[in-house]
Here is the input.
Amino acid sequence: MPKLTFSSDVKWSGEGVRSVADINGKQVIIDEPPALGGTDQGPNPVELVLAALGGCINVLVSLFASHHGVELKGVQVHVEGDLDPDGFMEKADVRPGFLEIRYHIDIDSPSDPKNVQALIEHVERVCPVKDTLRGVPTVPIMNQKTS
Here is the structure.
């Protein structure tokens, strides 16, 4: 299969810290709570990272369930992460990103627990978002417009 390229265009709204992402023709509002200068009109970037992990796990569980002989009645992923704001505010010498991310997968299925476990192990091994969170080079390319 050829390499796929995904993209997102994110533009500052001109109001506070709110941005709007255009992802494949769908708009997502990105904001912060008032304590961080926002109006809380949408999830913040780190919440979107957590949602991306949970969403990716859900997609893969539903995609590979039949491959493992698992009948799905429901799937839910709870994701949470610890972040010290002093890192990105440069108030302390701590990591600016997540210190730890935890997730719990709840699968409602009458199938053999061994099959469900094999499914979970498969998903954890191939999840692109989980793999990305292990570390991938990010390359900034900056263009500055002058008015």
About this structure: The radius of gyration is 19 Å. The mean pLDDT is 93. The beta strands are 9-12, 19-23, 26-30, 74-83, 98-108.
